[in-house]
Fold each of these.
Amino acid sequence: MYYLDQNIQELHRIFDQNERKNYLRLDLNENPGGLPEEFIKKVLDDVDPQFVSQYPETLHFTEILAKHLDTDIQHLCLVNGSSEGIRYIIQAFTSVNGRIVGVVPSYFMFQIYAEMYGRNFVPVPYTKDLDMPISHILEHLTKETELLILLNPNNPMGNIYSEEEFEKILEVCKEKEITLLIDEAYHYFYPKTFIHYALTERRIFVTRTFSKLFSMAGCRLGYVVGHPEDVQYVQKYCTPHNTNAFAMKFAEEILESPDILSNLISKFKEGRGYLLQALEEQNYLYQGEAGNFLFIKPKGDAKEIVQKMKEEFGILIKSYPSIGKLGDCLRVTIGEKKYMEQFMEALVKLDRNTSS
Ligand SMILES: Cc1ncc(COP(=O)(O)O)c(C=O)c1O
């Protein structure tokens, strides 16, 4: 008997992210400059035929990661990009038609996975002023809620939660027996973390990625942090050898070279400082407290600017419709200063010549 899952049949996916290599990519929150070239060469110099021919071993790298996070390996599950970990958490800790609560706008895969597995995603929208009062989140947490997804900081809004706010949310989650997923993809751009809760309590997960500050999106590597009793279930979903040897090798070398990390952070900060000042000077409104991205309210038409930025300047950015009081916006990845200069030069030229 032929069978096709109805959720998959009806699911709408967009796979439009090819042919980006000849552009300056400020659309997906990658590091546009990447890791230093000499570092890449040094890491690849160690690669021999056995390294490529054998299945990757995860134990060694998991131990290094555990040391970096000051924990032990039982709290960690390596995944092929944090989006894989998010998927397994949704699969394991929610049921068909189960209620998942999450803020919107946000990383789109939460809703995609919810649809893929027939879960009921309940959105908590931002206010017109682009705030997310935690009372709005709490209002949506019912006894039937199985999973709450928070982002620290959120993408694309860039908002954050104080410890006090987080504790309040956690209290309600515990009272109503709701599993909590905290996506920390943009950790390091914004150092405050809730990882200690995931390390010490049950039913709390933190997901992280090597795609953003670590500049390894092309390698695909992320991890799930949680209590060993919970992490074991995420691990069970993983395909054998789910994380590849090159990704773990690069990540290991970065974790073992603190200079690389601090350099990436300081280049990012310089780029962000430049961009914010340039936007102020040009009288632009913008939004984004944390993360390596910013919403900018253009003076002209957002979609037209995105199109022309690509065609005339070879720069990829994104537009988002109806971002509260800002209206239609541009979302731009923040990278090192030279790329921000390129972007600002293009924006100033284009935004004069597009219709408003
Ligand atoms: C909030 C958030 N979580 C997760 C991811 C996925 O990251 P990964 O490359 O680790 O799958 C992204 C990617 O943009 C993201 O913005």
Amino acid sequence: MTDRLTLYGSFTSSSTYKPMLYLALSGLPFSFRTVNLKNGVQREAPYLSVNRYGQVPALRHRGLTIVQSNVILDYLARTTGHFEGATEQERWTAREWLSWEADAITNVAKVRHFSRFRQVDSAVMEHFRPPAEAALSFVDTALEGRDWLVGNVCTIADIGCWGRMVFMAEGGLDINRWPRLLAWSERIKAMPGFALPYDLIPKKDAELGSTAPLTA
Ligand SMILES: N[C@@H](CCC(=O)N[C@@H](CS)C(=O)NCC(=O)O)C(=O)O
């Protein structure tokens, strides 16, 4: 049983970016295993034995297999202590944000997906754009008078919500429309270890990270 974290993911995936960003900001060493979504590797038996949903990301650690990006963030925060809420209430509130983002910020990812990877009828965009904009407005309002979504420091709530919306410009969603959200993204970008997805997620398998200890 290995103590080294192994993350399966893909270069263009916001769901992959979320745990990748977590690991980069934490300075944790890990192995990256690329899953080529374009070639359909996610639907082949070897990968389906890792993630039954045929999606990235997936995390393997200490004999466990963890899938769904927000469950991975939850696991990493519990296991390593990095970006965990400071109090029990904050820990629950951070997970509440992650559950909400899977319902709401997912629409931002859909707008980007249909803009970048598919030719779809305009009705599809008309369906997804209003809830995507509403989700961004909701985060913008929640950030009024505060630096972070939960408590006084960056938590998995910030990493999960930002990570899912990171490609918003590719969907024609201009972050300048949401000034508090913009300022929050700048705070995240100023953190040591930060990188944008195309600079962070390798196209090939890689051994990454420093020699930081697993526990914060
Ligand atoms: N709820 C999942 C969503 C994962 C997801 O949608 N992954 C996409 C890439 S961002 C994927 O693997 N798509 C490949 C496919 O569906 O064939 C999570 O948060 O992990």
